[in-house]
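re: ur question from earlier - yeah i can do the single chain one, its not a big deal. heres the input i used so u can compare w yours
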Amino acid sequence: MSIKTVLVEDSKTIRDALIPTMAELGDMEVMAVAETATDAVAALESLGTLWQLAVVDLFLKQGSGLDVLRACRRRRSGCMVVLSNYATPQMREECRALGADGVFDKSTQLDAFFDFCLHRFAKH
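and the output i got, formated as tokens:
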């Protein structure tokens, strides 16, 4: 069974490359895509507990991934992972403080991202 995923990424080029890779390597089914923080929060709220994983970029067309994390801070379900080119030590700390379950650099840590997700959602 696929991991029900919401992808928050404003770059169409990255989405077009990432979505099939997420399906193939991560057994992830992208249920919704958002390009802005507002759209991301709306998608996550409308899906309720149907989503299992949110993959969030930090820089968006409007707002930021930090805004998404703040809005979802009190979530009762779902795993939130930041996948960004700006995964500095300080940003990692800030994301985790806002409730991110993992923070990965999309240019150097894709393998670690997929390993984290597959381990997190491993069928026991």
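The chain has five helices and five strands. not sure if urs matches, ping me
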